[in-house]
Write a structure and sequence with these properties.
Helices cover about 55% and strands about 10% of the residues. The protein has about 280 residues and is of the alpha/beta class. The strands form two sheets. It has a five-stranded parallel beta sheet with strand order 5-4-1-6-7, with helices on both faces. A two-stranded antiparallel ribbon has the order 2-3.
Length: about 280
């Protein structure tokens, strides 16, 4: 069976992979504030502890070293903590969902549907309902509030002039395609790899099979998971700092891209960027 990777052809010696939410697109905060957390409260009826649970949801998914975690992994943390923290919270069949998040090869709606087709599970059914509600809520967000970060389009255009560019995101494919198309970012990319294509590490690994040298591949991201996906494949990582996204893109355009192309990115320069990135998430 053919995959999205089969139709991708390498055109340059260099490859730049770019995350979407919170990296190129200023959509991460609003999606968690208005969609992910609130939908969890609704589906599991957790209104009695809404304020505390939403604050914890945002902490885990936005402002700590677990920033950018897959939606189902984030949900697993939230539901497990809720049950352990509050005596009046009991999540039916939670162990089935937790086990699925730890063992499945693909964390997506499609993967849950495949499991449910074989055996019913209340927790997986509710997780699927939650995820589908999240997708609808995201689709209904005001367009004027879903914008690229300032500097992202210029950075992508410069990158695409000298390298192949791949969107590598764990977000819903439909939402990523719509947002990048609406803001004319898609024209500066060669392939879109979202939640249904596999993990970020897997996607980078598949792209490497097209013949790129590892030193010629750079992952641009805003979360520790992006860094780990790069490190797992032995490729380079450039961070977009939370609340400093504009200056991060400006630095990429003014110095990061040139260092990547000239072979002087790894070593001291990359270490400085990663140290700055980790410090920023720990403050």
């Amino acid at each position: 069976m053919s995959t999205i990777f089969d139709s991708f052809e390498r055109k340059h010696d260099f490859l730049i992979c770019v995350d979407s939410d919170g990296c190129a697109m200023d959509t991460m905060d609003i999606k968690h504030f208005r969609c992910f957390g609130p939908c969890m409260i609704e589906v599991w009826g957790l209104h009695a502890h809404e304020q505390e649970l939403l604050a914890r949801w945002n902490e885990v998914n936005l402002y700590t070293m677990t920033r950018g975690i897959n939606r189902f992994k984030g949900l697993a943390i939230a539901l497990k903590e809720a049950e352990e923290t509050y005596d009046d919270v009991q999540i039916d069949d939670l162990e089935t969902f937790l086990r699925w998040t730890e063992t499945t090869k693909e964390l997506s709606n499609r993967a849950i549907e495949e499991v449910l087709a074989q055996k019913e599970s209340k927790s997986l059914r509710m997780a699927l309902e939650w995820s589908e509600r999240v997708n609808v809520a995201i689709k209904n967000l005001p367009e004027e509030e879903n914008l690229p970060f300032e500097g992202a389009k210029a950075g992508l255009a410069a990158a695409h002039a000298v390298a192949d560019v791949a969107i590598v995101s764990s977000a819903n494919a439909g939402a990523v395609r719509e947002e990048w198309t609406r803001h004319n970012l898609i024209e500066h990319t060669d392939i879109m790899l979202a939640q249904d294509a596999g993990t970020k590490a897997y996607c980078i690994g598949q792209l490497l099979q097209k013949g790129y040298e590892k030193a010629h591949v750079l992952m641009i991201g805003d979360a520790p998971g992006d860094q780990k996906a790069a490190e797992d494949n032995g490729v380079l990582y450039y961070p977009i700092l939370v609340k400093k996204e504009k200056s991060s893109w400006e630095r990429f355009l003014s110095e990061g891209l040139e260092k990547f192309l000239s072979g002087t990115y790894s070593g001291k320069y990359q270490e400085e960027r990663i140290n700055e990135f980790q410090k920023n998430l720990s403050e």
